[in-house]
Amino acid sequence: MLTEKLNLLLNFHLQEVEREISFRTECGLYYSYYKQMIQAASIQQGLHGLVYDNKTESVRTINILERMNVYQEVFLSILYRILPIQQYLEPVYFYIYTLFGLQAVYVIALYVTSWLLSGTWLSGLLTACWYITNRIDTTRVEFTIPLRENWALPFFAVQIAAITYLFRSHLQPAQERLTLLAVFVATFLFSLTWQFNQFMMLIQALALFILDCFDILPTAKVTWLYIIQISGLLLVCALQFFNSMILGSLLISFNASILIARTIQKNLKKGSLLNRLGKLILHALLVSSLTLLVNKFIKSDEHIFKFLKAKFGFGATRDFDASLYLCEEAFGLLPLNTFSRLSDTLLFYVYIFVLFPMTVTAVIVALRNLSCSNQALEKMEEHTISLRPDAAYNLIHTVLFGCLALSTMRMKYLWTSHMCVFASFGLCSTEVWRLILKCAHLYTSQRTQVIKYLIPIITLLYILYKFWPGIMDELLELREFYDPDTVELMNWIKSNTPNTAVFAGSMQLLAGVKLCTGRTLTNHPHYEDKHLRERTKQIYQIYAKRSPEDVYRILRSFSTDYVILEDSICYERRHSRGCRLRDLLDIANGHIMDGLGENEPDLKPSLYPRFCEEIKKNLPSYTIHFTRVFQNKTFHVYKLAKHK
């Protein structure tokens, strides 16, 4: 009987480890704080453990709530503790189901936005179908559940839906106030759940600025949106103990500069075409100068700017952090095969079909607004092309986020989901079809009404016919995550090392070590802190050409007890020469890279062999500092000697 109980406990533990290692890289790190809060003796102790954390970074006590966007894990863990569901639902499933529930909110928000733009529920249905059939390119939730963007993007979609409603004409004051409140709440939650929120909202603010300059949006509503963005971000800043990355954000500088520039420059929207163009150019220069000036005084960390400078070719860089980003596929250009996948569902074809006439319309309206007075505009709009404010906002939104996606693949999910909205709206829009039919000299009111329903229905039937069987088969297919080497490593760590042991290794692996074993780490994947980046570069010398004494000294400076070496990094083949981790370290250290190929002239041969290769030979100069205590096909664990 006792043996059966022990076997059950062992099997349960094994299943738990297998589940947890499926949360790869930073996903595992974020989930570990949810697990930590649930396992704490009380909510107060759990919060104290996050505010005064000394296990995420050895020899440092950090405030997790200040450094990382984990309030969602805190809220969810408290909810799990107070709800009477512990007997029926394991914490991991509560977490997963909540996130999948948020994805349902995401799809509903996209549905509503499309419906608001087109005026028909058919557009919303087409949006949802496109989102699901293009899920490889519209979401990453099924593979990387705890990622911050999977928490944040549903709130961003809700915010866009609320902004779309806000820009409708003839809203009652009460409706406008409630909509502004919805925008604020969605903006706040979006900002709270993702560290890159400020960059997305900066693009959004740029969209508002462009449209306001061309008098396409009502200035009063745009001003409220600027204020909401600033106040939402500052509230998050307060909750994150005045995080320096938020305080130094370009968004706050940009929005504040716009509001200041408006008070300096008045009568921007009066005068002839040339006069107004001159004023707008001056206004744009003033806002840009003020933004840079304000940001220079409050900026604290430049690693994002170093990355952008290197990415867009403003000089070559040997900066290790920038190169680490640039060599990752996720931060590269959007692959061309993305468009072939989106075209299979007709989404990309329809998107371009809608985007072209809408862009032409926007240019015509912008030029007309600059060259005509308000009274003349009112008369002209009755007889000529017009563009609704809500449609104009969604047009510039999709264009700007499209540019972002083309330049950085990881950001494509912000564009492709909105692509579904925009394409569906255009296909079901009376205004778009009226414009196209008038250009073709085929316009009649009846023909427009028939086409705006017939074409979307045919498109829906095509999508269902071609993709529905595959979706059903995929739902029936059960997939199993299988990584026995990592499971063996985690079980060995739990069974053979003290709870206070400090582990060094790659950022990605150590996140799993923290989640599965609770051991202290030297570094981790949340890469937004300057000190952590410097520390990671030092830890990664285990894959560089350094002497055993140097590596030992570096590791012991962080109180390291064990170091984990991975063959997949030491002998990496995934990246090309110049982008392998060992190459980046060699260049940063001024050493010639391995293998055939050119090297920059100032690089020199190293005096020492590569540490991760040489340590396996068990030479005396290595064994005096490092003892191998675990090995399998993937990992090698060495215990560090403690010299007096």
Automatic annotation (TrEMBL):
Alphabetical list of Pfam families matching this protein: Dpy19
One term under GO cellular component: nuclear inner membrane
Source organism superkingdom: Eukaryota
Chief place where the protein resides: membrane
Molecular function as annotated in GO: mannosyltransferase activity
Localisation: Membrane
The protein's name: Dpy-19 like C-mannosyltransferase 3
Organism for this UniProt entry: Chrysolophus pictus (Golden pheasant)
